[in-house]
Each structure stands twice: as C-alpha cells, then as structure tokens.
C-alpha cells in the first residue's frame, strides 16, 4: 500500500466523465481556447495529432522495456544515490518515506549524454537506449514549447514566449522519468484491488508534464470537488498536466491537477514516460504581471525554482506544498 502522507487515503467515488481531448491540428485560435478551458477546468487534457513521430515513441518504448526486463542485479548498478535522485529506483519515491508499487528510472532532460547526473546511468546502457531517449526528449520538449506558446496566446500575453523560454534555457532543470508498474498477481488481486496504489496522490511541482503510457489503465485525476476520474489513453496519445509552477505563473487561473496511479487489476504491466518541463534552478517564479489586476489580486509570493524544489521535496508526496508560497492576504 502506498503511504503518501500522514492523512488517510482519499477514496471518494471514481466516475468516468468527459475529459478534454484536444486536437493539435486545429487552427491556433480554436486550439488556444480549448487549452485555456482545459487548464482552467481540469488542469489536464489529452492531446491527439501531436506531431511526435510514432517511430520516436516506439523506439523509446522498446528501449525502456529492454531496461526494465533486465535482472534486478543489473538495474541496481545505476540506482539513484542520495542526495541525487537520478538513476534507477524501486518502490521508494523520494527520500521521505513514500513508497509505491513500481520501479522507475529518472534522468536529467537537458543533455542526456553530457549531464554529470546521467553519465553513470547512460554509460551502462546500449547506444540505442541513449539515442532513443535523446530523440524522445527533444521531440516532447519541442511539443511542450509549442503548447506553452499557444497557451500564452490564449491568455492574451504580449510575449508568447514568456513561459516557453523557461524550459528552453540551457540550464533548464527539466527531467525525464519512466515508471514501470508490474501487473498484479492473481492471488493479490482479491483483497480490495481498488485501494492498491501504484503511485500516490500528488501534483507535479514543475510547469507542464507530458505523459505517454501504454494501454494498461491506472491513471486517475482529481476534480476540484475531490472526485477521482479514471483516464483512458491510447498509446499514441499524450496526457498534459498543469504543474504547480504554472499555477503560480497564471496567478491561480490554472490549477495544478492532483493525480495518482492505481495498481492495475491484471497481470499486464503499465509503463508511463513523463517529461517534466521545469525552469533553471535560479529562475525567479512569480505571477505574470498581466494576470494581476485590482479584481484579481496577487496570490503567490516570488521564489526561485530551487527554493520551491527544496520545499517540495522536503515534504511528503501528497502534501499541499504550493500553500507555503501563498501571499498572507490570501490565506
């Protein structure tokens, strides 16, 4: 069982309701309106016709399947060594006691081959692994930049690169993670399977998260009233999550979505690949001035991404860390 915080697991009823599905091939004006609505209402949307080549996705999936199929004795050779979170991990999520029914690999996304945090990991992998990850990260980074620029257009910001330039910075702290959730064994599938947690309730601290998974279910997002919504995906689709930093940049207009992954009820493994778009460590984060007005007062203090990251990872996974940075007048 996953332990996300000292508070009990939220088990409010799940319900399959309409989740925004956005077609990136639409005209820019229509697209921007759809993205704004989805980010305001859900903090989440599914993306189709996204333009990332299927061969890039397939090679990435093949590479990570190859990695996770290795014996544990091979995978632990590149295990994460605190305080660095990068490398292979199993069950442990962060350093504060959170665990889940999964194994994962976490890489710095800026430069896979040269980043010191990645060298020991990729040096132990075949060339096709390094190439597949590099190509995939580059493709989803470009996609993320495009989405952020369309989003800025929809917000009527004079500079449509104001958010996207944060992840294009050469010192961007973006990272790439692949989670592997093994299938549930039949004998363990009998005792309250709906309450088996693969990855506990949380929001992502970064700007945007771009997720691609296989067709094994498990992902759920939470609505503002606490209802859990199962998310069905096709292997060619992407899921897009609003992160804490984007909530701050938009002065609360968008809400970072809380989500979790349930351990699936079959013997099939779930694989999900996530690009977490983040600014550089020293980048100052504060609400965009054009989104503050007498009728929409400033909600959040200014802070560096490094300050927020340290605060976020000092807490339990399910804690509401963004509340630490709210202006006193809004508390």
UniProtKB/TrEMBL annotation:
Keywords: Dioxygenase, Iron, Metal-binding, Oxidoreductase. InterPro entries: DIOX_N (IPR026992), IPNS-like_FE2OG_OXY (IPR044861), IPNS-like_sf (IPR027443), Iron_ascorbate_oxido_reductase (IPR050231), Oxoglu/Fe-dep_dioxygenase_dom (IPR005123). One of its GO terms (biological process) is gibberellin catabolic process. It is an enzyme of class 1 (oxidoreductase). It catalyses: gibberellin A1 + 2-oxoglutarate + O2 = gibberellin A8 + succinate + CO2. One of its GO terms (molecular function) is gibberellin 2-beta-dioxygenase activity. Pfam families: 2OG-FeII_Oxy (PF03171), DIOX_N (PF14226). Its EC number is 1.14.11.13. Residues 171-279 form the Fe2OG dioxygenase domain. Belongs to the iron/ascorbate-dependent oxidoreductase family. GA2OX subfamily. This is gibberellin 2beta-dioxygenase. It comes from Helianthus annuus (Common sunflower). The lineage of its organism: Eukaryota, Viridiplantae, Streptophyta, Embryophyta, Tracheophyta. The gene is G2OX2.
């Amino acid at each position: 069982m996953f332990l996300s915080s000292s508070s009990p697991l939220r088990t409010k009823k799940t319900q399959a309701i309409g989740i925004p599905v956005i077609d990136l091939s639409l005209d820019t004006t229509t697209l921007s309106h759809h993205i704004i609505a989805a980010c305001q209402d859900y903090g989440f949307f599914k993306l189709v016709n996204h333009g990332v080549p299927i061969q890039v996705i397939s090679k990435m999936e093949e590479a990570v399947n190859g990695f996770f199929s290795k014996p544990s004795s091979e995978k632990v050779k590149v295990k994460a060594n605190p305080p660095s979170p990068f490398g292979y991990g199993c069950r442990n999520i962060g350093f504060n006691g959170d665990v889940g029914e999964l194994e994962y690999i976490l890489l710095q996304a800026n430069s896979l081959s040269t980043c010191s945090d990645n060298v020991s990991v990729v040096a132990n992998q075949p060339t096709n692994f390094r190439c597949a990850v590099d190509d995939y990260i580059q493709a989803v980074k470009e996609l993320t930049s495009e989405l952020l620029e369309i989003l800025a257009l929809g917000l009527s910001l004079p500079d449509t690169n104001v958010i996207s330039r944060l992840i294009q910075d050469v010192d961007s702290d973006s990272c790439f993670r692949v989670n592997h959730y093994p299938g549930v064994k039949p004998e363990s599938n009998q005792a309250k399977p709906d309450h088996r947690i693969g990855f506990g309730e949380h929001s992502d601290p970064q700007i945007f998260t771009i997720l691609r998974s296989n067709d094994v279910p498990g992902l759920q997002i939470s609505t503002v009233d606490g209802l859990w919504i199962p998310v069905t995906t096709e292997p060619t689709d992407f899921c897009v999550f609003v992160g804490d930093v984007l909530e701050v940049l938009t002065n609360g207009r968008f809400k970072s979505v809380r989500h979790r992954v349930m351990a699936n009820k079959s013997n099939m493994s779930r694989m999900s690949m996530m690009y977490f778009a983040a600014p550089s460590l020293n980048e100052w984060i504060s609400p965009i001035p054009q989104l503050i007005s007498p009728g929409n007062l400033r909600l959040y203090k200014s802070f560096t991404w490094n300050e927020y990251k340290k605060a976020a990872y000092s807490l339990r996974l399910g804690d509401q860390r963004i509340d630490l940075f709210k202006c006193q007048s809004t508390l």
